[in-house]
Backbone:
């Protein structure tokens, strides 16, 4: 199912500054570094079935998961309606942490900071098992978090916009190749609802220097991390994904890297570009991801055994 790209003049916007109704801003303690985040929860004080921890890609922010161009785009509102809490982080180097980390952090340092932030979130804000839903560089972070995580840390991982064999050089991230980056990051602009690029200023953010450097190290990090992931994993590749190779051979090899994971799924999404969660196909993707969460919940302890 895809959204139409017709403008939606009746969209409600909360008084909290461009957030969807029911979404609020919170701050987490990442071992002394503040990490800003967006949080949505099921209505009427119902306990969540699980908490979705959403990790944005490079050059974005937590607002990526609360798109304002169409009511059906926001993961935060959909997840809450379906009985989950959704915690979308501004990754280290973005949002509240940017003044403390002016050049950002590399991947493994981000993993350490986010572990601390999630411990704080579990102590104060969220309950239920944690499920990682991540995009692009956030997908790399999700894999780093899951590698060697203690049993029971995460239900599973749902990753989009990230693979293991690049189709374009990460070195482009450090250049001002605007035309090339627009094609890589977005694909055809018709794939996004009307108003997407009027609202985008609240979503995009500069990609920190150390994160750009770390993105260029994925070729050596991926073979170390992927075999150590021990929870179910699902990948989604957009039809117009241009950063990553996605032939059948590429995706078969990707799945084979997860030698310790009990289950690995690879999906394709038609009518989507790299920034899936802001596009017309966002709702379809989010529903599939939350269905995978349900499968992980149903599997329970069995998912820990291959």
Residues:
């Amino acid at each position: 199912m895809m959204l139409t790209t017709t403008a939606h003049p009746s969209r409600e916007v909360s008084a909290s500054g461009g957030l969807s109704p029911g979404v609020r801003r919170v701050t987490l303690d990442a071992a002394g570094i503040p990490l800003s985040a967006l949080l949505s929860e099921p209505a009427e004080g119902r306990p969540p079935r699980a908490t979705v921890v959403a990790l944005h890609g490079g050059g974005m922010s937590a607002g990526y998961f609360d798109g304002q161009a169409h009511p059906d785009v926001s993961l935060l509102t959909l997840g809450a309606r379906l009985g989950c809490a959704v915690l979308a982080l501004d990754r280290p180097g973005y949002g509240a942490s940017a003044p403390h980390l002016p050049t950002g952090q590399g991947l493994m340092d981000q993993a350490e900071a986010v572990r601390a932030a999630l411990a704080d979130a579990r102590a104060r804000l969220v309950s239920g098992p944690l499920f990682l839903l991540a995009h692009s560089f956030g997908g790399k972070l999700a894999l780093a978090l899951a590698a060697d995580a203690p049993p029971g840390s995460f239900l599973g991982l749902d990753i989009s916009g990230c693979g293991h064999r690049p189709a374009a050089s990460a070195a482009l991230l450090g250049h001002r190749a605007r035309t090339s980056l627009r094609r890589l990051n977005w694909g055809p602009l018709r794939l996004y609802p009307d108003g997407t690029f009027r609202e985008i200023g609240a979503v995009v953010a500069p990609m920190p220097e150390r994160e750009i450097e770390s993105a260029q190290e994925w070729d050596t990090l991926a073979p170390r991390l992927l075999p150590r992931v021990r929870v179910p994993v699902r990948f989604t590749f957009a039809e117009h994904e241009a950063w990553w190779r996605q032939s059948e051979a590429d995706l078969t090899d990707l799945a084979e890297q997860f030698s310790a994971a009990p289950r690995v799924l690879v999906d394709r999404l038609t009518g989507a570009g790299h920034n899936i969660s802001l596009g017309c196909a966002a709702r379809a993707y989010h529903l599939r991801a939350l269905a995978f969460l349900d499968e992980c919940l149903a599997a329970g302890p069995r998912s820990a055994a291959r």
In short: The domain at 35-301 is CATH 3.40.50.1820 (Rossmann fold). Confidence is low (pLDDT under 50) at residues 1-16.
